[in-house]
């Protein structure tokens, strides 16, 4: 009921705004599509509003409303649950580390795809998207097998005293695997559009190779790198299948938030599960908003921003 | 800075096709030279070779008598303006201009105030003092051009290389920038090499014009010489509208194949030849009964424009407005082409 009242209040405020002349004009123009030459503007507008409302806003609203249905109690109780905070911290920190480590890797791969004239370039190009196509459980099992203490890579590593599987480094590894395509695919088109003359101009102006890389190539890529980071991070926070096989899933150590939600569901603790989901949602949202603001700030030079 | 190029040859990657074919040229200090020619003639390739951006397989290149092997040696001594300007999109105009100074090793780098003053000075020289904090994406073509030039000049080079710098500008801006560039060249005592496919631009701005075709230098001369003594029919045609009359040299006369075009005396040996002439050099003669019909096409720049209909083709003829003659009334005349240059197998014969 409270939610409905809130919505009505917002609608009222909206009407007041609309009465203001310029706002009204802006709204009519928006509705009519300005002087757009595209046919079917209103149809597309209605379709978009319906689509986003039905498939994105509605489920999100349900997610926001559901935890409170059994009263404030379960949510507050959840807020006192140290296990949940440990899981959230594991999720966010590993996702951030993985996305961060993907920056140089993705940049290098995109660089090779755009500039390198290697024979197997087209195959490599196709392979990069594989982590997106593979069922996440398959990648998880594959990674777990490779890095388990008896695995091809895990055995020599364990001899060196490094254990990857069943630790947080295992989670980071899995998240890097699934996040890499996002980084490569956001950086690649921007890198492709950077004219090669920029490097030549810098060279002729006396820049040394290191200066060319940092000041002329990476600097204009920063917005794309940040977007790639955001996408890889978001994917990492929500990733489930590929992580649970390699993570070991020990509470307080290597348990990720999505897994904790499943655990709560299996305990039939629906309010608890939705409360974690809500906190996860809010935390992700605020991180993504911050990244968006930062991105706008560092891409002030481009026309669209 | 003087530039000397000797027997420079460059091949297309992985083929025997020559992009530059045995080019020998000297650009003395203070010269303003235009490289002209159709697209694919090798103008830009030559310019890039001089800048050191591309390596040539054969030949030598010396700048001020020294062969500078690496780009590092040339850094800051050569100003290069790219066709698309290649401004750094993420830097402000001021940062773009100061780039060449900012990247200097700490010992050689001027202090921040000195750099700021240099940028200010250049912005004023380029007549864009208000744009220091703007980003390249928001500039017009002419403004980008000026920023690119300022960036190229920041390190105080004595050789300026310009690759089709006026290509993307509208005609009015082109004309202003052209004159301004010439003034700048004289003011700073630069050696400037300009690549353009617009022969009019070259004729107007440069002291010397190098016409290129298929990777070779066809003619290297002053604008006046080029206009008066084109060495090949290609140069003649490239420098402006030209009309060709095929004919025969006989008994010391060039006899055109077409009727109603007057023969004229010449010294060259007998045989087939082509007479090429500019439309404003053709004269109209009123003698004879049967003559070429003339269609009027209005006037411009003090010339009356006609189109003379010969058998199978129409030839443009521009006559000074001040000249009289019966053809104004009768609308037909004979063509006198005695000012034509005669070419045999594409090269100048008379």
UniProtKB/TrEMBL annotation, chain A:
<comment type="similarity">
    <text>Belongs to the binding-protein-dependent transport system permease family. CysTW subfamily.</text>
</comment>
<keyword id="KW-0813">Transport</keyword>
<feature type="transmembrane region" description="Helical">
    <location>
        <begin position="160"/>
        <end position="184"/>
    </location>
</feature>
<feature type="transmembrane region" description="Helical">
    <location>
        <begin position="212"/>
        <end position="234"/>
    </location>
</feature>
<feature type="transmembrane region" description="Helical">
    <location>
        <begin position="273"/>
        <end position="294"/>
    </location>
</feature>
<protein>
    <recommendedName>
        <fullName>Sulfate transport system permease protein CysT</fullName>
    </recommendedName>
</protein>
<dbReference type="GO" id="GO:0005886">
    <property type="term" value="C:plasma membrane"/>
</dbReference>
<keyword id="KW-1133">Transmembrane helix</keyword>
<keyword id="KW-0812">Transmembrane</keyword>
<dbReference type="GO" id="GO:0015419">
    <property type="term" value="F:ABC-type sulfate transporter activity"/>
</dbReference>
<keyword id="KW-0764">Sulfate transport</keyword>
<dbReference type="InterPro" id="IPR035906">
    <property type="entry name" value="MetI-like_sf"/>
</dbReference>
<comment type="function">
    <text>Part of the ABC transporter complex (TC 3.A.1.6.1) involved in sulfate/thiosulfate import.</text>
</comment>
<dbReference type="InterPro" id="IPR000515">
    <property type="entry name" value="MetI-like"/>
</dbReference>
<comment type="subunit">
    <text>The complex is composed of two ATP-binding proteins (CysA), two transmembrane proteins (CysT and CysW) and a solute-binding protein (CysP).</text>
</comment>
<feature type="domain" description="ABC transmembrane type-1">
    <location>
        <begin position="88"/>
        <end position="291"/>
    </location>
</feature>
<dbReference type="InterPro" id="IPR005667">
    <property type="entry name" value="Sulph_transpt2"/>
</dbReference>
<feature type="transmembrane region" description="Helical">
    <location>
        <begin position="45"/>
        <end position="65"/>
    </location>
</feature>
<dbReference type="Pfam" id="PF00528">
    <property type="entry name" value="BPD_transp_1"/>
</dbReference>
<feature type="transmembrane region" description="Helical">
    <location>
        <begin position="126"/>
        <end position="148"/>
    </location>
</feature>
<keyword id="KW-0472">Membrane</keyword>
<feature type="transmembrane region" description="Helical">
    <location>
        <begin position="85"/>
        <end position="114"/>
    </location>
</feature>
Automatic annotation (TrEMBL), chain B:
<dbReference type="Pfam" id="PF00005">
    <property type="entry name" value="ABC_tran"/>
</dbReference>
<feature type="domain" description="ABC transporter">
    <location>
        <begin position="3"/>
        <end position="239"/>
    </location>
</feature>
<dbReference type="GO" id="GO:0005524">
    <property type="term" value="F:ATP binding"/>
</dbReference>
<dbReference type="InterPro" id="IPR003439">
    <property type="entry name" value="ABC_transporter-like_ATP-bd"/>
</dbReference>
<dbReference type="InterPro" id="IPR050093">
    <property type="entry name" value="ABC_SmlMolc_Importer"/>
</dbReference>
<keyword id="KW-0813">Transport</keyword>
<protein>
    <submittedName>
        <fullName>ABC transporter sulfate permease cysA</fullName>
    </submittedName>
</protein>
<keyword id="KW-0067">ATP-binding</keyword>
<dbReference type="InterPro" id="IPR003593">
    <property type="entry name" value="AAA+_ATPase"/>
</dbReference>
<dbReference type="GO" id="GO:0016887">
    <property type="term" value="F:ATP hydrolysis activity"/>
</dbReference>
<dbReference type="InterPro" id="IPR017871">
    <property type="entry name" value="ABC_transporter-like_CS"/>
</dbReference>
<dbReference type="InterPro" id="IPR027417">
    <property type="entry name" value="P-loop_NTPase"/>
</dbReference>
<dbReference type="GO" id="GO:0015697">
    <property type="term" value="P:quaternary ammonium group transport"/>
</dbReference>
<keyword id="KW-0547">Nucleotide-binding</keyword>
